[in-house]
Structures are given as structure tokens and as C-alpha cells.
Amino acid sequence: MQVFLILLWTTNLARPKMPQGAGVQVFPPVNFTLTVSALAQVLLHWKPNPAQEQNNSTIRYDVKILSPVPEEYDTKRTHSVRTAALHNGFSARVRTLLLQEDLQMSSDWVKGQLPPLPGAAGTSITNLSCVTHVTVPENVSLHCTWLPGQGAPEDTKYFLFYRYEAHTEECPSYITDEWNRNIECTFSSTRIKPGEIGSLIVVHINGSSKRAAIKPFQQLFNQNAIEKVNVPRNISVSLEQNDLLATWEKPVSPFDKECFEYEFYLINLKSGNEQILKISSNSFRLRIDVTSRYSIRIRANHNHICRARGFWSDWSGIIYVGQNKLENSIAWIFTLLCVSTSCTLLLVTLICKINHLWSKLFPPVPTPSNKFRDPFPVDYE
């Protein structure tokens, strides 16, 4: 009897453990579609497979974006929205995930794709670059430049659109090249919100030509990464004994002063020595040579603590402080010598004129008399 129990226990150990969900079939979603719902925006939509049995299980969906930028995520919903540049097409796939306690089962993949946007190769614009700028509180300008495609005919006309959230707008003002092709665009005012972090700006440029089909181009920009910061305000520079003191206010921006960093450009005009110092606050103290004169400029940028760093601001106007004492002394001596010499000459001239000394010192030379008569006078009558 003991031998039988031992054999039975050994047999149970050797038998593989069947998973709890064994025999449950997982079906892929149906009616998977990809729809362009806005500029550079795709709506992914599918429906649960009607043959799928839930049986106290949780159903989720695994979504994998294949192109243009790979991405994978899961969701409970049967739809998803993704922002991506679509000029080279878009492809994705989805499958069903069945979660039952600690067990996860998945179906086969269902794939969908969007073809590339139509147009001749080489006609798309290249070298697209965009910059935003907070012109006044709550207003952001947008400026973009690009180059025509190498295969674009001379009669090509490019047109730029930007999309921010649900707002789409065409460029109101272009600058053209020598063939009258649009290569630059400026929006003096946009719907871009200056205080947002990480929001995307979609730029779409298409074109037209009588000689070729112009292929559109799309690019996504992080609004913080392309912002050119304003110049620091109310800069004040002074000397305190052997120290240079500088203070300023943060640029015009919805972000707090802790979100900025600065570069302090200092030139010793006497020695020609240049320094660029990085500063994280709104004030600065530096020991300097008080016998020298300095020029100072400051510029600003966002730091990485609050948001993505953008473009540095322009340099502030030049501020001068201090003086070259040796050069100033020489200049003063030279000036005094010139003034004193001029005054002395003027005084001597006046004294001589008053006392008639010129005629005494330099009497006029008398004209000699003619003692000889002309022996041959000529009468012209």
C-alpha cells in the first residue's frame, strides 16, 4: 500500500500543470481601420471579435505602431489617436489580449496601413526649420523657413499650414526666392499656448506645379524646443569697490524666474580678455580689475528643470562699466597741454596788439627811391 501511494505521488509530480485558461481561444479584433482625422493625425479603430468569449476575463488590446516611429502600448478602448508625420505613410497592427488572473493570452495580429502621400520624388521641401517667439504675454509668433526640393520645377508654389491641437491655419505671409517660390513664412499671431509643456506643433507643406505633382511634407515640433527666448529685461550694472554687480529681470514669459538660465558675456576692453559665464540666478557679483573698462551683454534660455531647452535669446544691448585709468590720465594731460598752449598764444597775441609791439618789433621795410631817369622815354600816343 505504501509503495502504491509513493508511485501515485510520483506520477502526479511528473504530469505537466495545465494552465487555467487552457482551451480558451483568443480571437483578433475585426474591422481594423486607419483614418486621417487631421493634419498628421491618425484615428485607429477596431471592434471586438463577436466570437470572443470573455468568461470573467479582462479584454485589452495591444497596439503596435510600425511606422513612421515605432511605438507599442495597450488600451481597454477600441480606438486610439496618434500624431505622426504621414508623408511617407503609416502602418500599425493590433491584437486582443485576454487577461485571466495571472495568465495573459493573445490573439494573432491584425495589420493596417496608410500609403505615402502622393507626389513626385524630390519635389518635397527640405531643411524645414521653425522658431516660435512669445511676442507679448499670451501671444506666440511662428516663423518657418525651408528649401525647395531639388526636383521641384521653377513654377512650384509651396503652401504652409500649421496645426496646434484642433486649430489649423494657413500661412498669411510668405517670402519667395528668385523663381518666386515660397521659402519662408511668418505667423505674427497663433493659437499656440505659451505656457504649455511638451505640446506638439504640426507643420504641413504641400505644393502645386503645372509640370509635376508636388509631394507634401510634414514635421512635428515640440513647442518648447523651438521657442526662442526673449532678452532679459531691466539690466543694471554697477561697481562696488573691486566688484562688478549685475541684476536683471527674467524675459517676458509665462514661466517663473527659476525656469531660466543666463550667459554673461564680459570683455575687458583694456586687455581684450573675453569671458562667457553661465548663471542660474537673476544677479551676479564678480571681482574685476578696477583700472579697466568692461563691456557686458546677457542672454537667456530655459533650463531643463521646467521644460525642454529652446533657442538662446539674442544678446542684450552692450553696457559699459569702469574706465581705463592710465589712458584717461594721458588723455587729460594731452588735453590740458593743448588748452594751455592755445591760451598762451592767444594771450601773447592780444598783449602785442594792445601795445603796438608788432610794429616796433617788426618795422616795415622802406621802399627805395628811383634816382635814375629813363633815358629813352616812350610816348605811346
TrEMBL record:
The chain crosses the membrane at residues 330-352. Its main location: membrane. One of its GO terms (cellular component) is external side of plasma membrane. It is a single-pass type I membrane protein. This is IL5RA protein. Residues 127-225 form the Type I cytokine receptor cytokine-binding domain. GO terms for molecular function: cytokine receptor activity. It comes from Dasyornis broadbenti (rufous bristle-bird). Residues 1-16 form the signal peptide. It is found in: Membrane. Keywords: Glycoprotein, Membrane, Receptor, Signal, Transmembrane, Transmembrane helix. PROSITE patterns: HEMATOPO_REC_S_F2.
